[in-house]
Amino acid sequence: MHPALWADKLGNSWRTTFDINDSWESMVSRADQNEVYAEHARPGGWNDPDMLEVGNGGMSNDEYIVHFSLWAASKAPLIIGCDVRSMTKETLAILGNEEVIAVNQDPLGVQAKKVRMYGDSEVWAGPLSRYRTVVILLNRSPEFRTITAQWDDIGLPPNTVVEVKDLWKHVTLEKRFVNELTADVHHHACKMFLLTPLTLSEEDEPKV
Fold first, then answer.
1. pLDDT tens readout for residues 7-32
2. In the UniProt record, does the keyword Transmembrane occur (predicted)?
């Protein structure tokens, strides 16, 4: 009954999808269904594409990283759905990624959207506080892909120079990026980046 259209008057969170199950197809379809209602999410009211399946064993580690990345960028409630008493180190590393959780908890409270599709390759992006941007390069195909995010698609002004941090490798890239960001992405996997625009003084001799 599309509660995203009216439930903000009654509560702080509402389901946007049917129940999820622990499979790639179910997870990405719930992300798609939830994204439709992105404009209705805001501080005090959040779209909920159902709980996290991370750690339940039905998906690969890369697929669970996609799951957690999309839910975090979508500002969805991060409700653990596995047995926390028997979590593996790999599961804990996903669910405990503080930099990704910080994206979810960003005070600006704007849900990321799917801003570009190239077949099974997708770019998701959303604004964060302090003029930053979160970008997810998602490969839904069963094959390796190279994916590019263009500034025009992700909402950055032309010629903006940015610093890029890989939120899963916890590494700030040495290279500075202008107008686009390209990365190689394995099948059923993603890259999640935090883009921070640089001031003129910080842009000296950018490595582009």
1. 999 999 999 999 999 999 999 999 99
2. no
Q: Residues 10, 101: one domain?
A: yes
Same domain, yes or no: 53 and 123 = no
Query: Does residue 185 contact residue 118 with C-beta atoms inside 8 Å?
Result: no
Kindly state the tokens that stand for 100. 């990704």
- Residues shown for the chain: 208
Q: What is the CATH number of the domain that holds 126?
A: 2.60.40.1180
Q: In terms of DSSP bridges, do strands 46-48 and 13-15 run parallel, antiparallel, or are they unpaired?
A: parallel
Question: Hey, what amino acid is at 73?
Answer: A
Output the pLDDT for position 205.
53
Q: How far is CA 99 from CA 112, 137, 170, in A?
A: 16, 17, 8
Is the four-CA dihedral 69, 150, 45, 30 of positive or negative sign?
negative
